[in-house]
Amino acid sequence: MTDGLRTSIADGVATLTLDRPAALNALTIGVKVALLDALRQIAADRSVRAVILTGAGRAFCAGQDLAERRLPDAPPLDEELRQRYEPIIRAMVELDRPIIAAINGVAAGAGASLALACDLRIAAESARFVLAFSRIALVPDSGATWFLPRIVGSARAAELALLDTSLDAAAAERIGLVSRVVPDDELLPTATAVAADLVGRAPQAIAAAKRLLREAWTTDLEGALEAERQAQGALGATLDHAEGVAAFLEKRPPRFTGS
Predict the structure, then answer these.
(1) Tens digit of pLDDT for each residue in 93-116?
(2) Do residues 16 and 71 touch, judged by C-beta distance below 8 A?
(3) Cβ neighbours of 183 (radius 10 Å)
(4) pLDDT tens across 154-213, in order?
């Protein structure tokens, strides 16, 4: 455990657990430093092929620890975003391995932003989402205004951002904010099973697919077609592609090595 974050790695899966349950896993500077450091370590560790981000106790993450913001030496909000939050979001998006959010309770404020930055979102039945920024006279940050309309559409995004509408897990699934909802006691087993599935897939192909999906939000059709063509050209020359074809023809599971 490091300053409110627990990290474990097993069978190619890194699990990052925000661990301040008494404070609903609210984010302090220490937690943000630890989270960014963990993401950077994972980026350098090729044995890790998937990541799970979750919270301890009854919350995923309640966002910024507001008590810390009242300390006399608290930096201005824009500086805190520049120094702490934005590097975390960039590290999550740029990581060439998939990140699964296992949302076990409330995801509020910057906690919701962390969930939005993940590639896959699985929610427990007790999960709840609320941006909560307008309640303290602020705007959604940490990428929320960029991710949200792309995930749920502009009308839903406006309602969530302007009215601070709270969504339970079922409503979040209906609008596509999460891909599935499971009973609370099945959340981590489900996320672990999804991560294990990803670990067994060709890592270069997974990385390229994550990148193409991200780039598709900011390109036109011709740009997407070009990017797909380039990716297929590179992937088609890999040993993993040859293994995948051989395994299909031989009717056996493929053994991908990342080469």
Answers:
(1) 999 999 999 999 999 999 999 999
(2) no
(3) 10
(4) 999 999 999 988 999 999 999 999 999 999 999 999 999 999 999 999 999 999 999 999
251: left (phi over 0), alpha (psi -120 to 50) or beta: left
Split at pLDDT 50, 70, 90, the class of 259 is confident
Which pLDDT tens digit goes with each residue over 202-253? 999 999 999 999 999 889 999 999 999 999 999 999 999 999 899 999 999 9
CA distance 255 to 177: 33
Question: Which residue, chain included where needed, has tokens 């990716």?
Answer: 231
pTM over 0.85: yes
Amino acid in the structure at residue 252: R
Rounded distance between C-alpha atoms, residue 142 and residue 82, angstroms: 9
- Locate 131 and state its tokens: 């941006």
Q: Between 154-162 and 144-152, two packed helices, what is the crossing angle to 10 degrees?
A: 130
Render 185-218 in DSSP notation, one character per residue: GGHHHHHHHHHHHHHTS-HHHHHHHHHHHHHHTT
Domains along the sequence of the chain with CATH: 5-199 (3.90.226.10), 203-249 (1.10.12.10)
For 217, the token pair is: 């939000």
Rounded to whole angstroms, the Cα distance separating 180 from 146 reads 22
Q: 37, 223 in Cβ contact below 8 A?
A: no
Amino acid in the structure at residue 174: R
